[in-house]
């Protein structure tokens, strides 16, 4: 075992006992902001005009290869304690992530991160029948849906505290494209099955069957990803995020994707196109992991 691997294991052991359930909310509030004109965010949230804003366009042609350990997923294969709540918060669909049945939170290490990052929530951004709704672009192309798995550095007691630190938050991004398939084993099926009960903003429903976070990533090759220093893609746009956006695009059948388009926002209008436009790179470095390191 290498010295780096030993040190990595010590870090995990040191932090493991600190893992605990924390509120998953970004405290946006149902009426906190909207996507009608994202330029208006700047007036109340000056950070939204910063130089490390997200999302951005990702491409291997402009990225630098980075030989690092892959992301290690801890407790992702352990069932979450039920019931698991899913909410239409008026801006997105969000799933709270609490402890697993073993009493600990799912968390990640590796992937270039320093320390332990505890999963707080999973939420989604999408478009409409006219616009592709992923936040990031990969290879110059936008996709239909983007899932964010939001993680907090466990040095902080809440996301509100973590977002004030440059390395407080890590977000894993997974992009989906619409493909005409009727697979019953679609990884997002437990969440999508709830969407008809979440039409109204503020609605909350529960996933009835046991759920493991790994099931949401079941078709993903996690060894290939982009990473860069960026921000939250919603107000207050805090520049505290290490982004880990997976390169491999996942599939979602049309009947599942269209369920998102039927949701309503706080004004009872269609909740569609809830993505922030691409932001300027501003001389930032984009790195790509090429899976050469095991």
How would you explain this protein's 3D organization?
This protein has a single domain (44-290), classed as Alpha carbonic anhydrase (Carbonic Anhydrase II). The longest helix has 14 residues, at 3-16. The radius of gyration is 18 Å and the shape is globular. The protein is 12% helix and 26% strand. The strands form two sheets. Strands 2, 3, 4, 5, 6, 7, 9, 10, 11, 12, 13, 14 and 15 form a 13-stranded mixed sheet that branches. Strands 1-8 form a two-stranded parallel ribbon. It is of the alpha+beta class and 294 residues long. A hairpin with a 6-residue loop joins β6 (107-110) and β7 (117-126).
Task: Please identify which CATH superfamily we are dealing with.
Answer: Alpha carbonic anhydrase
- The share of residues in helices is 10-25%
- Content-based structural category: alpha+beta
Q: Count the strands? A: 15
- Tell me about the largest β-sheet: 13 strands, mixed
Q: Segments where pLDDT lies below 50 for 5+ residues?
A: 1-31
Q: What is the succession of H and E elements? A: HHEEEEEEEEEHEHEEEEHE
The CATH level-2 architecture is identified as Roll
Give the helix tally: 5
List keywords for this structure.
15 strands, alpha+beta, 13-stranded mixed beta sheet, disordered N terminus, Carbonic Anhydrase II, two-stranded parallel sheet, 5 helices, 294 residues
């Amino acid at each position: 075992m290498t010295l780096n691997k030993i040190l990595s294991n010590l870090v995990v052991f040191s932090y493991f006992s600190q893992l605990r359930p924390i509120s998953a909310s970004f405290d946006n509030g149902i009426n906190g902001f909207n996507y009608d004109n994202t330029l208006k965010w700047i007036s109340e949230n000056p950070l939204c005009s910063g130089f490390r804003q997200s999302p951005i366009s990702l491409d291997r042609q402009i990225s630098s290869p980075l030989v690092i350990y892959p992301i290690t997923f801890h407790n992702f294969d352990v069932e979450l304690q039920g019931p698991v709540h899913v909410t239409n918060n008026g801006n997105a669909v969000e799933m709270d992530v609490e402890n697993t049945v073993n009493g600990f939170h799912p968390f990640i290490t590796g992937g270039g991160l320093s320390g332990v990052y505890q999963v707080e929530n999973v939420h989604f951004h999408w478009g409409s029948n006219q616009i592709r709704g992923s936040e990031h672009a990969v290879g110059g192309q936008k996709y239909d849906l983007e899932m964010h798995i939001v993680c907090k550095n466990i040095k902080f007691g809440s996301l509100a505290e973590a977002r004030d630190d440059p390395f407080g938050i890590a977000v894993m991004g997974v992009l989906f494209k619409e493909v005409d398939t009727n697979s019953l084993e679609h990884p997002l099926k437990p969440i999508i099955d709830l969407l008809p009960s979440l039409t109204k903003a503020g609605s909350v429903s529960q996933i009835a069957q046991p759920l493991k976070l790994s099931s949401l990533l079941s078709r993903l090759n996690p060894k290939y990803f982009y990473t860069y220093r960026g921000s939250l893609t919603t107000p207050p746009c805090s520049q505290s995020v290490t982004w880990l956006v997976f390169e491999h695009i996942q599939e979602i059948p049309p009947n599942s994707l269209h369920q998102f388009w039927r949701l309503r926002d706080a004004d009872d209008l269609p909740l569609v196109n809830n993505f922030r436009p691409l932001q300027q790179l501003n001389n930032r470095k984009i790195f790509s992991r090429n899976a050469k390191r095991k």
